[in-house]
Amino acid sequence: MCFIGLLGLFAPRFVIVMLWLFTDYMSRAYTNWLLPTLGFFLLPTTTIAYAIAKNAFSDASGGIEAGGIVVIVLGVVIDVGLIGGGRGITKRRTARA
């Protein structure tokens, strides 16, 4: 159970590093290094979701279409779930005991 939790924490960060090293996917989405670096530590799934939205769901003017917004919101929900998920499990376990 603990291994699955660790995998959930480190997998998005691994994906960010692989995208940065082997593709230009992140550099097309972000113009500088500050936001992806902060995203790597704070909200990694949202950082990946924004890169996907910017690369796959951009319109001609460079804005993000509705499908991209859905992808970003999904990334935020996953990140918030990973951060707060442990507290909910602990709360349920202590309530049963």
Overview of the molecule:
The longest helix has 31 residues, at 66-96. The two termini are 19 Å apart. The chain has 97 residues and is mainly alpha-helical. Helix 1 (2-22) crosses helix 4 (44-56) and helix 3 crosses helix 4. The mean pLDDT is 86. It is 80% helix and 0% strand. It is elongated, with a radius of gyration of 16 Å.
SSE string, helices as H and strands as E: HHHHH
Using only CA atoms, what is the Rg?
16 Å
Unreliable stretches (pLDDT < 50, length at least 5) are: none
User: Which structural class matches the secondary elements?
Assistant: mainly alpha
Note the overall shape: elongated
Tally of strands: 0
* Proportion of residues in extended strands: under 5%
**Helix content bin:** over 70%
Cα distance, first to last residue?
19 Å
- Integer average pLDDT: 86
Which sheet architecture does the biggest sheet show? none
Tell me the number of helical segments per DSSP (H or I, 4 or more residues long).
Answer: 5
